[in-house]
Amino acid sequence: FPSGNETFEKLGAIGTLSNLLIYLTTVFNLSNIKAATIISVFNGTANFGTLLGAYICDTFLGRYNTLAAASLASFLGLLLIQLTAAIPGLHPPSCGKSSDAATCKQPTGGQMSFLLTGFALMIIGAGGIRPCNLAFGVDQFNPNTESGRRGINSFFNWYFFTITFAKMISVTLIVYIQANVSWSIGLAIPAILMLISCALFFGGTKMYVIVKASGSPVTSLIQVFVVSIKKRNLKYLDSNSLFNYIPKKSINKPLPHTDQFNWLDRAAILTPADKINSEDGSPENPWNLCSLQQVEEAKCVVRVLPIWVSGIIYYLAIAQQGTYAIFQANQADRRMGNTKFQVPAATYGVFLMLSLTAFIPVYDRVLVPFLRRLTGKEGGITILQRLGVGVLISVLSMLVSGVTLGMSDRNRGEISSMSAFWLVPQFVLAGLAEVFGAVGQVEFYYKQFPENMRSVAGALNYCGIAAGSYLSTALIQLVHRTTEGAPTGNWLPEDLNKGRLDYYYYLVGGLGVLNFGYFLWCSSGYRYKKAKDEVVQPEVKGSA
C-alpha cells in the first residue's frame, strides 16, 4: 500500500504535467512563456518543498499522518484542475483556430486563482508524499532480521519499478486521452487514480507499523555545530571523556564513536559549567552540551553530503534525455518504417522507462543473488559501488548521444537527416544508469542517515534532482550565450540542424568524467554507518 500510494500520485501528477503546458496554452489561452513559467515554478517548488514536508513529518506529524494529509491534498488539487476543464465558467472561451495568445481572451483573476489553488494543493501533496512515502515503506520491514534486511534492499528496486511503470502509463495512455479525446476526461483520470490511492492507503491502516514523530532531528544537528564552535578552544582528550546520553524513546540505533571529523567531538566535552538533569541524565541546556550520539548522527549527515553533490552532476546528464534529446527527436525523422505514422517526440522517453523497468527485475532477482555468492555482501555489491556504476553509465549515455548525432552528418551533425530511432541506445543507457544511480542514491541516503531523518533523506534526493535540473538550465544558457559568436557557431540555436548539439553532449559527458573522479575520491574515504553491537536476529516465521 505505501508503494502504491506514490505510484498513483505519480500517475496523477506526471500524467497531468506531461500535457499541462498544452492545456495552459490551448484551454487557458496563456502564452508559451507564461505557461512554461507556471510549470517551472511548480516543479521547482514541489521538489524543494519536500524539505519542509520532511521537517513537518519528522518534527510534528509523523510519516503516517503526513502521508494521509498529503494524499488528500493531492486528490483535491487534481480535482480542482479537472474542474477547470469540465466547467466552462472556470476557463476562458476557446480561441478557435487562432494560435496567437495575445488575440485570445485571457483568463480572469478568479479563473487563474482557482487553477493556481489546484497547483498549490498538488505542491502540498508532493511535499508530503515524496519524502515520507519511501521511508514509511521501509518502516514496515524489520532490519534486525536477515529477510527484513533483504526485503529492504528489494523494496528500493521494486519501488522504482512501480513508479516508473506509472510514468510510462502517464506519458502514453493518459496523455493521449488528454490530447485526443477530452481534457475533461483526461484530467479526471488522474483525480480518480489519486482517489483510489487514498482508499488503498487508508485501507491498510491497521496493518501498518506506524512510527511516531520524535522531535526535530534538524535542531539536533544544528546544536552539534553550534556547540562545537562554542567549544572549539577546548582540548580534546579521547572518546571516553565525552558525554553520552540516548533518550529512552529514541528510534535511532546507538552509534559507536568514529575518529572522522573530530572537531565535532568537542560538542560532547563535559565542562564544570555544564549541568545535567538528575531525573534522566540529559543536559539541561542542549545548546551548551551535546551527547556523543548526537555528534555521531551529525557525522553521518556530513559524510553523505559530498556524495550528494556528485549526484547533482549525475542528474545533469539524465536531465538531457528529457530536454534536448526530445528536441532532437522532434526535428528528426520520426516515421515508423515506410509508413506515414510519426511517433510523438515526447514518447521516445518511454525507452528510458522501458529500460529501467526491464532491468530492475533482472538486477534484483538474477544479478544480486549471483554477486552475493561471489562477494558475500547482502546487496551483491556495496551501495557506493552501485552508485559508481550509475555515474559511469550516465557518462557513457552522453558520449553515445554525441557520437550518434555526429554520425548523422560528419560535417555539421544534421539532425533532420537521421531517424529518431537512433536515439533509442542513449535512452536505454540512461535507463540503466537510473537502475544503478537513482535507485542506489535513494537506498544510500535512507541507510546512511539516522533513523529519525529518513524523511529528510527522501527530501535530499528530490533536492538533488531539482539542483540537477536547475544546473542544466544554467549550463544551457551559458553555452548558448558563450557560443553565439564563436567560430563553430551557436551550439544550441532554435534550429538544432544549424548547431553543434554533439559538442554540448560531449561537454556534459566531460563534466561527468570529472564528477566520476570526484566521486571515487569521496568514496575512498567514506565510512558506512554501523550501529553499536549490531546483531542480526534469527528469523521468525512470517516476519520481514
What are the salient characteristics of this protein?
globular; mainly alpha; disordered C terminus; 64% helix; 544 residues
Task: Provide structural commentary.
- This protein has helices at residues 2-26, 32-86, 109-139, 146-180, 183-203, 217-230, 292-320, 324-331, 350-375, 383-408, 424-448, 454-483, 501-524.
- With 544 residues, the chain is mainly alpha-helical.
- Helix 4 (146-180) packs antiparallel against helix 5, helix 4 (146-180) packs antiparallel against helix 9 and helix 7 (292-320) packs parallel to helix 12 (454-483).
- Mean pLDDT is 83; it is low at 1-8, 10-16 and 535-544.
Task: Summarize the amount of helix as a percent range.
Answer: 55-70%
- Uncertain segments are 1-8, 10-16, 535-544
Cα-based radius of gyration, to the nearest Å: 25 Å
Terminal Cα separation, in Å? 15 Å
Mean pLDDT: 83
* Total strand segments: 0
Shape: globular
Strand content: under 5%
Most strands sheet = none
SSE string, helices as H and strands as E: HHHHHHHHHHHHH
Number of helices: 13
Structural class: mainly alpha
Keywords: Membrane, Transmembrane, Transmembrane helix
Organism: Linum tenue
Transmembrane segments: 37-56, 68-91, 112-136, 156-176, 183-203, 343-363, 383-407, 419-439, 503-522
Membrane topology: Multi-pass membrane protein
